[in-house]
Amino acid sequence: MIRGLRLPPNSRILDVAAGTGEVTRLLQRHGHRVISLDQSREMLGQAVAGGAVAALGRAEELPFPRESFDALTFTYLLRYVEDPLPCMRELVRVVRPGGSIGMVEFGRPRGAWGALWRFYTRTCLPLAGKYIGHGWEQVGSFLGPSIDEFWRRFPGDSLIELWEEAGLERVTRTDMSLGGGIFMTGRKK
To answer: Would you tell me the crossing angle of helices 125-132 and 136-153 to the nearest 10 degrees?
Structure first.
């Protein structure tokens, strides 16, 4: 995703749903000035411990003025918001015209890989979570159905259409890992 954004060095970037700051740190290693935003104080604490500048907040109500950033990234966000279109519009709002937005999300492989993916997300992840420790069984059990529901809501090119309706152009989607992951990029009009 970071390479796909094609950002000049020293870009000002907002990393939304930053969690523990993994993407933030990658962006910083590429020479960018990044703010990590997440709604979880605990996750942001880990991001700050890793060197992030952080802001507590929700993607649906960003605490920044219009056109504050050269780019914006987010990972695994749209599955968790009630209405993705207003959320995307809010993300676009804080990016300058011509600025980039990038997303990483789980996909759903097709064909034989789809059956293996379904087995993995519905059986292996919950089982592994049971043995990893407290709370992980619930996470493992939640993930597969969450991914499936998201792609039922946004089949085919409808996610690209959502991004365009939110004010982005030159939207691209790239499948990774046999379709188990995707990244998307777009530019603000």
So the answer is: 150
